[in-house]
Give the backbone structure.
Amino acid sequence: MTSPEFLDFRNRVFDYHHRGEFRAALEAVTTSQSRFLDELNTLIFWQACFHALLGEKQPALETLNRGLASGEWWHPAMLRNDSDLASLQEVPEFLAILNVCQRRHEGAQESGSPELLEILPQTGHPPYPCLLALHGMGSRAAFEAANWGPASQLGWLVAVPQSSRLLSPRRYHWPDVALAHIELSHHLQDLSRRGAILPSQCVLAGFSQGGALALQFALHQSIPCRGVIGVVPGRVPLDELETAATASGQAGLRAYLIVGGQDRRREDFEILHTWLEQHGIPCLIEWHPEIGHAFPTDMSSSLRAALDFVMNTSTNGEIQ
């Protein structure tokens, strides 16, 4: 799994970015590459972004080209849509980098396959209730498993699927909802076939893009679940989910949102919370004023509260 040290480092870099301290962020990222070799793809991308934000176009381009020379690449949409790289978009050398990344991205999709990381409960015996937790865009199962792992101490089997679709080397995303549904359904069918989980006690969860996907599947009940937990969830197509949400509310679905007060999408979280309640889905929103688009520091406490709420656990610990 990704080390807690890198998770702390990532949060520090995000804090620099949020405060506009781009020079400090660039220095931190540049001097840390030898410490986090498994995260080199991410660090090179960040380094290029901070050079660009500082108006240093040529160093930004040189950074990306060095990455390409070492075998790295990035999803063309990342390069095109990241506002940090806005100053490079019409530079011919940047367009050449885009073309190389496009070819490498297309070639890499043939080798991708879905995976599932399982964390077994520390108490009890199978079958267990199941927390199916989806990673965010540009992440991977091992990177985020540590955040969901504390649920295993509460008697849950934590299943963290990894998409088959590569965003860049060692980084994955969920670009195809239909394909994601197939992959997740296969994982759950396998867990159920092995007698590892109780299908009637499944909770969907996810971070960012994974949180949005978990909410969509939960609202449609295309993946049956008792509840859904979204950590700074991405955009959910609410207008497409009106009928499904009403039916899910009547069926007893419950939702819990864990969000950051510094996140640029905090107003969207409030809208989502209100929308869920209006459609008959009990929803609690847990605010962390100090964080942005990230997991809270004490995810263990948040998970306990979230699971108690979505499973409608009584004060004596029994599931209703």
User: Anything to note?
Assistant: Residues 314-320 have pLDDT under 50 and may be disordered.
